[in-house]
Amino acid sequence: MKTPNSLEKKLNIIGYSVSVAVLLLVSFMRKISIQSSIDFHFLPPFYSLLNAICAVVLIIAYIHIINKRVEQHRKYMTLAMSISSLFLLCYVVYHITTPDTKFCGIGNIRYFYFTLLITHVVLAAVSFPLIVFTYIRGYLMKVEKHRMLAKWVFPIWLFVCISGPVCYLMLRPCY
Q1: CB–CB of 107/100 below 8 Å?
Q2: Residue 89 · residue 132 · CB < 8 Å
Q3: What H or E segment, with its residue span, contains residue 63?
Q4: Distance between CA 142 and CA 136 in Å, rounded?
């Protein structure tokens, strides 16, 4: 499928713009505080569930592509992108409306939690633009460029989708 060069340029501009905007928003969201009459404490279990579902969707998409079912792979990857977008929206809403929850575990579990959390946060930030551009390459059927990115991005995205809910479960007793 040949794609007009102008579509690729437009999607790249959108990809760069969204990546910069999201990374800035997430970087500074702790400095934004919006008062609301709505209690958003229901969001962490919801967006953690979204992350877990996204991990399952990613695995299904991977199974489809290794079995050369490209259309099913595309549908599941679009679903993964949609789930991750909803996750991101819920995550930002929660963190700009609700004070931070401090980890209350003691002993060696603290080291494990903070190592997992830091790894999760760093890889989520690094992978976000890579996920966007891997998706764009796939959408445009730039197969070789897509594969080159996907072989690195997939395991990182999967780790982020699994480690997020694990961090939530470890933090849950501290709410």
Answers
A1: no
A2: no
A3: helix 43-66
A4: 9
Separation between Cα atoms, residue 23 and residue 169, nearest integer Å: 25
Nearest C-alpha neighbor of 160 from the set 47, 79, 73:
47
Residue with tokens 């991750």: 84
CA dihedral 165, 83, 1, 150 (to 10 degrees): -10
Among candidates 171, 169, 168, 35, which has minimal Cα distance to 91?
A: 168
| pLDDT averaged per 10 residues in sequence order, the chain, 175 residues | 76 95 90 91 97 98 98 98 97 94 95 97 96 97 96 98 98 93
Residues 6+ apart with CB under 8 A from 148: none
Residue 149 CA: distances (Å) to CA of 55, 132, 141, 175? 18, 10, 13, 38
* Tokens describing residue 86: 């909803």
Residues making up the chain, counted from first to last = 175
Structural element, H or E, at residue 77: helix 70-97
